[in-house]
Amino acid sequence: MEAVFKLDPMLKRDCFELLELKLSKLLLMNDSQYPWFILVPKRTGIEDIYQLDWQDQQQLLNESSALSEILMQAFTGRKMNVAALGNMCSQLHVHHVVRFENDCAWPKPVWGYSPAIAYTEYEINALKTKLLPPLKKVLMPEC
Fold first, then answer.
1. Cβ(25)–Cβ(40) under 8 Å?
2. Residue 132 in contact with residue 124, Cβ under 8 Å?
3. Domain containing residue 130: CATH number
4. Which of 3, 23, 103, 115 has its CA 20 to 30 A from that of 143?
5. Where does the record locate the signal sequence feature (predicted)?
6. Which uninterrupted H or E stretch holds 37?
7. 67-114: per-residue pLDDT in tens?
8. DSSP code of 49?
9. Is the pLDDT of residue 143 over 80?
10. Contact 92, 41 (CB under 8 A)
11. Are the CB atoms for 26 and 36 separated by under 8 Å?
12. 53 has a pLDDT exceeding 60
């Protein structure tokens, strides 16, 4: 019997859950300084991409690529940073951060650069209104 997937407490604390995709949970990092989203494959005991089976690796790549394209179109960013670090939170999660030449950390990494600035409820609702329709259309076409 496969263990029930649970989101790591650190991710649960620092993020908002947006969507359940075929493989992953889509999260929004609660830092309004950057459009920062995270894909978390719903598999237990996985810390690195190579530990996923081949089909899940392909699905993660599909979800990540589609998410990246939608975010770059929505935010007209300069660069899309995609990374799976896992040094602080070992549960496999893939960061997607839209970067701009005028963001506060450019060109350095966003991790630990400055304290997070939480989203307001209005900002979260505006993001959901802007992003959920195209995300659902591409990442959840059966809906």
1. yes
2. no
3. 3.30.428.10
4. 3
5. none
6. strand 36-41
7. 999 999 999 999 999 999 988 999 999 999 999 999 999 999 998 899
8. G
9. no
10. yes
11. no
12. yes
Helices (H), 1-143: 9-14, 54-75, 121-139
Determine how many CB atoms are found less than 10 A away from the CB of residue 23.
Answer: 20
> Distance between CA 23 and CA 53 in Å, rounded?
12
Residue 36: phi and psi, rounded to 5, are -130, 110
The reported pTM is 0.94
Number of domains in the chain: 1
Residue 11 contacts residue 93 (beta carbons within 8 Å): yes
Task: Note whether residue 65 is domain-resident.
Answer: yes
* Domain-located, residue 143: no
The pLDDT of residue 2 is 61
**Burial level of 119, CB count in 10 A (0-12/13-18/19+)?**
middle
Total Cβ atoms within 10 A of residue 18 = 18
Amino acid, single-letter form, for residue 113: Y
Beta bridge partners of 56: none
Is residue 85 within 8 Å of residue 48, measured between CB atoms?
no
Q: Which range of residues forms the domain containing residue 23?
A: 9-136
